[in-house]
Amino acid sequence: MSYLSPLQWMFYLAALLAVIASIKVxxxxxxxxxxxxxxxxxxxxxxxxxxxxxxxxxxxxxxVYAGAILVLFVFxxxxxxxxxxxxxxxxxxxxxxxxxxxxxxATTLLIQLxxxxxxxxxxxxxxxxxxxxxxxxxxxxxxxxLAVEIAxxxxxxxxxxxYHFAKPDGPDEHLGLQxxxxxxSRQHSLLGSSHKSxxxx
Length: 201
Prior knowledge:
By secondary structure, the chain is mostly helical. The protein folds into three domains: 131 residues, NADH-ubiquinone/plastoquinone oxidoreductase chain 6, subunit NuoJ (Four Helix Bundle (Hemerythrin (Met), subunit A)); 34 residues; 31 residues. It is built from nine helices and no strands. About 3% of the residues have low confidence.
């Protein structure tokens, strides 16, 4: 009977934390709260990459996904006004309870990384099977080229869907927006004329 090595136990623990955080993302009732767990989930996936001997892929996971992509998600939530609507209808959660789950998962991942970095035996195993940037590029644009292209089409589909849900549904809403803008411009012009008349007096 073969037992798992400590490095494998670390990998499966990080994978379990990624699954738990991902479940909290899709089961959350508030998109802002779900983003916290999404950040932790992406960090757990980065730890999995690092434990597999791919530090370059782990760095890309943190920089590209946990950094740039999350900024786009926050921008989308701000643009659609989702946070304001959810704060009105979502159940009230204390700030301590909100941060407790992500903090526990992130702390566990940090302890894992510190333990792996401090253990010389694990570092020897990781350095013996390091996957550098060249190998990652050859794999992405070699046997996995079709998967990369499919992922790009999925991103394009998400962009089109975001535009579809953000735009007004019909001409009535366009007219309503124009009426509101005309109403505000009339109010500004009336206020300006009243100020001018008061100054002339």
